[in-house]
Write a structure and sequence with these properties.
globular; alpha+beta; about 600 residues; four-stranded mixed beta sheet
Length: about 600
């Protein structure tokens, strides 16, 4: 019967920038039923279309924008765009997500997925207008900041176009460049670098065809139940709408898990000065959601009211940005943190990686391995807000020492071999804002995450530190903890393939998502357990991609500091991450061999042999 009218429009759009050719393919129903969309569909396409071990910056590397069956419907938080490619920072599979209206417009324009290959001869923009595709010159946009580019596009095309853009950092191929849409950012792993390598400054899309679902009456009922459930959750109805994602900062700090001074500690003595409560009282002027169907509205607009940066308006900062520029650099100046966030947004770079790079540099400076002369005269001392801002500006603009620092923690540590033990990265991606010695499950998840260190591939911190699902012992590292991590990993892969916002998991479980997916698609999934199997299938394809790229068990590791240096304070004082035991249990529970390779039996069980 085909997929049209079942949450899908049934088409994949291919754009070859080198030859300026456009074609479409029908989305295979079997692939959709096994992988849903979003992350699952995108990684499957990447696996099928990529040449093994090719340079991520090759014109052949696909840049994929994928929607899910719930995109463009009334399902709450269904406005995310899933972006999939090969990471220039890690050379692993990369999936990154961005809020806003772009994904819905792509769907309304008649496409479930956009696949871009090739390299344009000159700076270009892809225009998709209700299904019609055009590739246009965009020299006038090249060099503009993200905000300037979006304003110029809407000025020339119309306000109803939704955009994806890169900033100057993506144009010059900074490995930490993101892709932006209305200041929402797909930040991690360098997707903006891939877009820049294709000389693609922007994509603009608008459409007018509504998304139809299989059983409209039942779907609307279940979407309303999901919405109501989110409005009944303490996290999604009260904490996050008021204090944003930073509502957890003081709790994480109390648990000894707030990374401080390049993960030397898990407690920051000035945490109250950078908490969500403090930002709410002093800087944030309003809240908003990524789209009209988001009941959470965790995003904040900050206005700097005094000092050197007076008058600056910025979207944020969120928890991860506050940790990276704040506690991890020993900085408690909210204005400096907010301005650093602003600079990153304008030039188009990831705030987590940028802050972690600077924290690493500050420790190098503390230990005498790097001098101020090498940093263009900057005294990179802990807590130095002025140094923080100067280093952010240099990295964002690629000026002076910023040309080197933008390469990331792993590359920097290669110049300073004595620093490798505290270079806080996994597979080349900087570690995010949870101290794994205080939350063992997060340590496992950082190590096995397919895109490098990531808190969003399996958020065990919710149970370990924040008390969700009744609370999980943060220091346990037995088989039950491993199974918990796998459960969270599979669940998140379903959310990312649906495509929904991660924060729905602070209020919903797979049951509510299952209840929307079935009447949306008409797929005959028996229960949420069968839906969870989709998550396992997606995780496994990602693993297969990385194995093909040369990654193996040796890469499922953590920085030495986490494994050998006990935490100095807090509830987890004296703890290290017990990775070896958990990793062995993880492989076994996944049905992978002792080297971390999925067995033929597992691939057959997951029906991957039918589509790969």
């Amino acid at each position: 019967m085909g997929l049209e009218g079942r949450g899908y429009v049934g088409k994949i759009l291919y754009v070859d920038l080198m030859n300026e050719k456009v074609r479409t393919e029908t989305l295979d129903e079997k692939v959709a039923s096994l992988l849903l969309g979003g992350k699952g569909l995108g990684i499957w396409l990447l696996y099928k279309l990529s040449r093994p071990r090719e340079d991520p910056l090759s014109p052949n590397t696909p840049l994929i924008f994928a929607t899910g069956p719930l995109t463009g419907t009334s399902a709450p938080t269904s406005s995310k765009t899933c972006i999939i490619t090969k990471s220039p920072a890690t050379r692993t599979v990369l999936d990154s997500y961005c809020g806003g209206f772009f994904a819905s417009e792509l769907k309304y324009s008649g496409y479930d997925c956009l696949v871009i290959t090739g390299q344009a001869e000159r700076p270009s923009i892809i225009l998709i207008d209700n299904g019609e595709v055009d590739i246009r010159a965009a020299e006038n946009l090249w060099g503009l900041t993200t905000v300037e580019a979006e304003k110029e596009i809407r000025k020339s095309l119309g306000k109803d176009f939704k955009t994806m853009v890169i900033g100057p950092a993506g144009e010059r191929l900074s490995p930490i460049a993101g892709i932006f849409s209305d200041l929402r950012c797909a930040g991690r792993g360098g997707a903006g670098t891939i877009m820049g390598s294709k000389k693609l400054k922007a994509i603009a899309v608008r459409g007018k065809e509504p998304v139809r679902v299989y059983d409209e009456k039942e779907f609307n009922k279940m979407a309303w139940i999901a919405y109501r459930t989110l409005r009944m959750s303490e996290a999604t109805a009260r904490s996050m709408p008021v204090f944003g994602t930073a509502n957890i900062l003081l709790v994480v700090n109390e648990a000894g898990a707030l990374p401080t001074r390049n993960f030397q500690s898990g407690r920051f003595e000035k945490a109250e000065e950078i908490s969500g409560e403090s930002f709410h009282e002093e800087l944030w002027i309003r809240s908003y959601g990524c789209s009209l169907n988001c009941p959470i509205a965790c995003s904040k607009i900050a206005l700097i009211k005094e000092g050197r940066f007076k008058g600056t308006v910025v979207d944020g900062p969120d928890y991860e940005t506050i940790f990276s520029f704040g506690s991890n650099c020993g900085v408690s100046d909210k204005n400096a943190i907010s301005y650093a966030n602003y600079v990153c947004d304008m030039y188009g770079i990831d705030t987590i990686s940028t802050g972690c790079i600077i924290a690493f540099v500050m420790e190098l400076y503390e230990k005498g391995l790097i001098k101020s002369q090498e940093l263009d005269g900057i005294e990179a001392t802990w807590g130095n807000a002025e140094a923080l801002v100067k280093l952010v500006e240099k990295i964002a603009k690629g000026e002076g020492v910023g040309k080197f620092l933008q390469l990331g923690v792993k590359r920097i540590s290669e110049r300073y071999p004595d620093s490798v033990s505290y270079a806080m990265q996994v597979k080349g991606l900087e570690v995010p804002g949870y101290e794994p010695r205080a939350a063992q499950g997060m340590g496992l998840c950082y190590a096995v995450s397919e895109r490098g260190a990531c808190h969003l591939r399996a958020y065990t911190a919710g149970g370990e530190l924040l008390g969700y699902l009744g609370g999980i012992d943060p220091l346990s590292h037995d088989r039950l903890k491993v199974l918990y991590a796998i459960d969270r990993q599979d669940e998140k892969a379903v959310v990312d393939s649906s495509v929904l916002c991660f924060f729905t998991l602070f209020g919903l479980r797979l049951k509510e998502i299952y209840q929307m997916i079935v009447p949306c698609t008409g797929f005959n999934y028996e229960n949420e357990i069968e839906l969870k199997a989709i998550g396992e299938r997606v995780i496994t394809i990602a693993r297969l991609f990385n194995i093909r790229e040369g990654f193996s068990k040796k890469d499922d590791k953590l920085p030495e500091r986490f494994l050998k240096k006990p935490l100095p304070e807090g509830p987890a004082k004296g703890q290290t991450v017990h990775l070896r035991q958990m990793l062995s249990e993880y492989y076994n529970a996944r049905g992978w061999n002792e080297e971390g390779i999925p067995t033929k039996e597992k691939l057959k069980q997951l029906k991957l042999t039918e589509i790969l």
